[in-house]
Each structure stands twice: as C-alpha cells, then as structure tokens.
Automatic annotation (TrEMBL):
The keyword Nucleotide-binding applies. Keywords: ATP-binding, Kinase, Nucleotide-binding, Transferase. The lineage of its organism: Bacteria, Bacillati, Bacillota, Bacilli, Bacillales. One of its GO terms (molecular function) is kinase activity. Transmembrane segments: none annotated. CDD domains: bac_FRK (cd01167). It comes from Fictibacillus phosphorivorans. It holds the Pfam family PfkB. Residues 5-309 form the Carbohydrate kinase PfkB domain. It comes from the Bacteria. Belongs to the carbohydrate kinase PfkB family. SUPFAM superfamilies: Ribokinase-like. This is Carbohydrate kinase PfkB domain-containing protein.
Length: 328
C-alpha cells in the first residue's frame, strides 16, 4: 500500500479575494481555492510529496473546483466527501493597504463543518508519516468529533502530529470553548505553528520569548514555530530559542503565506532520516528556506495559486545568498 507523507484534515473552502473595482465601480472578488490544511497539502503535493486530504465540500461547482485544484496539485482526494444538502463553505477576504487580511465566513453551516466521524478510516491514517490539523474543523459538530477521532487514530498509530491552531475568533460563539479545543490540540502535537498574535492570545503574555517558553513548556511541545509576518519567524526546539529574519518583498496578498511556510517546514523535515531528531543548525536552515517560501507566497493573490515552484524557491534563495555575500 502506498505511503503518504502528510495527511491533513479540515476545512476546504473558497476564498473570495478582492479583485478591484468592476467597470461599474463595484467591488469584485476572485474565486480562489483555500482552507488552511488544504493549502498545506497543496504546497507539499506541488513539491512532489505524497499527500492526502480528509474534508467535506458541497455537491456544487465550488466543491468541484476545490477537488480538481487539489488533484492538479497531486493531492489524494479519495477521502473528500460531498454533501448533497449543505453548500461548500465560502470565505470573503478583506485586504488592507499592506496586504494583511481579515475574513468573513459564509458557513451557517457550510459543508466543511458536516465532516462526519464515519468519513474517517484508519487505513489511510496508518499510511501517513505526519498528520496535520487546525482548529477551524473543531468549531462545531459533527466535524469536531470527526477531527478528534482522526487525531486520536493518528496518535494511536504513533504518527507525528502537526497542529496550526489558525485562530478564527469569528467562527466561535464561546471563547472559553475555543481555548479549550486549541489547548487540547497543543497538548497532543509534536510540531506546532502559531502566529505572534495567536501566541500572545493563548498565553496572555506580551514578551515573545516568555510566551514561547510558557506555551512550549505548558504543553510539552518539542518544536514550536512562531510566524512573525514580514519580520520572519522564531523557533523553540527542546528548550533552545532563536529568531530567523524574513526577506523584504512587495507583499500583495498574505493569504496562505503561513500555510505554505508550514508546508515548507514539513517538506524539509520529511527530507530527513529521523524527522524529529533536529539540531539547532537544522532548524535555522529550515526556517531560512521557509521564510523565503512564505515571502514568495505573498507576491500573488490567493493561497494555492501563489505556491511557488521548487525552482522559484531555489532561485530566490540563490539571489538572496549572493546579495548577502555582496554586502559582507
Ligand atoms: P500566519 O498565517 O501564520 O499569520 P504570516 O503572515 O506570518 O503567517 O506568514 C508566514 C511567513 O511568511 C512569515 O513567517 C514570513 O516568513 C513570510 N511572510 C509573511 N508575510 C511576509 C511579508 N510581508 N514579507 C516577507 N515575508 C513574509
């Protein structure tokens, strides 16, 4: 049976990105494929890794578009089911002048939330190396139960668990419940990615380093990565901490930058004989590349359409290395 490098569970939805005014001077939106866990596997699939997605879409043309996009990125879609009654979830993205985004979800409910425990099967999970999830599929039932069921199966089968909480406060009615669910995720994960805002929100601590120590020690997280937007990223690996600066680019749309960044971290971990046996020098290198991948993802609109190719990443890194050498 074929091995899967990364299996992800969670939201697969349409991101409508602002596309400027129409001829009638009305706002228009571009239909882009999205959903954080889907973005992660799409990136890994594009870069040649074996991936699979567990998700639910509506039986409509948005759902069709999402599945065909993932297939184009070589993601196994055999565990994506279609809901006959509930439409594919939609998210409208608002961008400010710096390319930073906020979301509005059309999901009362949306098909992603209808993912059911019966849609999860152990055989697929047994075949993966890394199991990835987030908190959007934990916002309500039945997808919450389905997600935990899958995560528990992955744990029982000694898979590496990757978690990106991806806090979307608008999707939760009860903030205590949101924290509770995210804490459960942090407690089971081996690899955790959070943004700086999420880190402060989850710890209530303003100082970056203190907050990182608090989070990773409280929940025994072996590898914690903090994304810092244009600034770059920070890590905490078995008690050691560091900051890796980002690259200067003209960001157009940061949607998906964190997911594709995380795809790059997982891609590089998969390239190692023992995924979790890392030295500090390894994580520094991994984040230098992942920062470049994140930066490249901000240059185009949407998440999946902006995933750079391996050649584009190599070229960008070569150009920046030369640039840095010229300066010294
Ligand atoms: P998240 O979705 O986790 O908030 P970020 O927006 O911080 O993700 O982006 C993830 C990574 O992508 C950052 O850590 C950084 O390496 C890169 N990145 C994001 N925005 C920019 C930017 N404006 N310029 C350069 N790099 C960026």
């Amino acid at each position: 049976m074929k091995e899967i490098d990364v299996m992800a569970i969670g939201e697969l939805l349409i991101d409508f990105s602002p596309a400027g005014p129409s001829l009638n001077k009305r706002p228009t939106f571009e239909q882009n494929p999205g959903g954080a866990p889907a973005n992660v596997v799409a990136a890994l699939g594009k870069w040649g890794r074996a991936t699979s997605m567990i998700a639910r879409v509506g039986e409509d043309f948005f759902g069709e578009d999402l599945i065909s996009t993932l297939k184009e990125h070589h993601v196994d879609c055999s565990l994506i089911t279609k809901d006959k009654k509930i439409p594919t979830t939609l998210a409208f993205v608002n961008l400010d002048d710096n390319g930073n985004r906020s979301f509005r979800f059309y999901r009362k409910p949306g098909a992603d939330l209808m993912l059911h425990k019966d849609n999860i099967e152990e055989t697929g999970i047994k075949r993966c190396k890394i199991f990835h999830f987030g908190s959007v599929s934990l916002t309500g039932e039945p997808s919450r139960e389905a997600t935990w069921h899958a995560v528990e199966l992955a744990k029982e089968n000694a898979k590496i668990i990757s978690f990106d909480p991806n806090v979307r406060e608008l999707l939760w009615e009860d903030h205590d419940e949101m924290k509770e669910q995210i804490i459960r995720g942090l407690s089971v994960a081996d690899l955790v990615k959070v943004s700086e805002e999420e880190l402060h929100f989850l710890t209530g601590e303003d100082m970056l380093e203190k907050a990182m120590t608090l989070l990773s020690e409280t929940y025994s997280i072996p590898l914690l990565i903090i994304t810092l937007g244009a600034e770059g990223s920070s890590y905490r690996l078995y008690g050691k901490m560091g900051f890796i600066p980002g690259y200067k680019v003209r960001a157009l749309d940061t949607t998906g930058a964190g997911d594709v960044f995380w795809g790059s971290v997982l891609y590089q971990l998969l390239g190692r004989a023992k995924l979790l046996e890392l030295q500090e020098t390894d994580i520094v290198q991994i984040l230098q590349t992942a920062n470049a991948v994140g930066a490249l993802t901000t240059l185009k609109k949407g998440a999946i359409p902006s995933i750079p190719t391996i050649d584009e990443i190599d070229l960008f890194l070569r150009q920046h290395r030369t640039h840095m050498e010229d300066k010294t």
